[in-house]
């Protein structure tokens, strides 16, 4: 009977230690310089945002109103539809199109070159077409403000 509490104590300690290691590793990954910064993403021109999205992506639908608000405020946004169909993209954009141009990435090659596995992702791109900042996952107002601020 006395082995049961001790056994759970060891299991709990091991679980806690593994959780601490995992959190430490994730923090270290987040602190590393983003490997996409400095990569060429767009043609040179003006600073703008690039948003990777898909019509089948739930978080992409969630962030769409924020992208629309940015576009209304004059923030130029390029869209890249990843692993999607032209019909799916048209349907998605029929609800609102914040993009000044939409490129199709039907096989996910652009997404793979950027080293991302999930959608959506948004990049701040300078006038030379190089990535200067990145937001993984759906935009939040804070992340949008950070990205837009980096364009100045």
How would you describe this protein?
- This protein has 2 domains: 1-32; 48-150, Glutaredoxin, CATH 3.40.30.
- 45% of the residues lie in helices and 18% in strands.
- The chain has 5 helices and 5 strands; from the N terminus they run αβαβαβαββα.
- It has a 5-stranded mixed sheet with strand order 3-2-1-4-5.
- The longest helix has 29 residues, at 3-31.
- The chain is globular and about 60 Å long.
Question: How is the topology of this model organized?
Answer:
Elements: H1 3-31, E1 48-53, H2 58-72, E2 77-82, H3 86-94, E3 101-105, H4 109-114, E4 121-125, E5 131-136, H5 141-150
Short description:
This protein is 45% helix and 18% strand. It is of the alpha/beta class and 152 residues long.
End-to-end gap: 67 Å
Number of helices: 5
Principal-axes geometry comes out as globular
The CATH top-level class label of the largest domain: Alpha Beta
Structural class assignment: alpha/beta
Short key terms for the protein model shown above:
single chain; 152 residues; 5 strands; 2 domains; alpha/beta; Glutaredoxin; five-stranded mixed β-sheet
């Amino acid at each position: 009977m006395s082995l049961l509490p001790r056994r759970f104590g060891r299991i709990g300690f091991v679980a806690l230690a593994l959780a601490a290691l995992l959190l430490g590793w994730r923090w270290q990954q987040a602190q590393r310089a983003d490997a996409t910064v400095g990569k060429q993403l767009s043609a040179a021109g003006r600073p703008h945002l690039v948003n990777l999205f898909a019509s089948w992506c739930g978080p992409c639908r969630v962030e769409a109103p924020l992208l629309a608000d940015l576009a209304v405020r004059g923030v130029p946004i390029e869209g890249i539809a990843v692993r999607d169909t032209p019909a799916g993209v048209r349907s998605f954009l029929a609800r609102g199109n914040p993009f000044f141009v939409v490129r199709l990435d039907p096989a996910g090659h652009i997404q793979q070159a950027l080293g991302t596995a999930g959608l959506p992702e948004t990049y701040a791109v300078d006038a030379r077409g190089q990535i200067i900042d990145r937001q993984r996952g759906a935009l939040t107002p804070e992340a949008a403000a950070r990205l837009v601020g980096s364009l100045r």
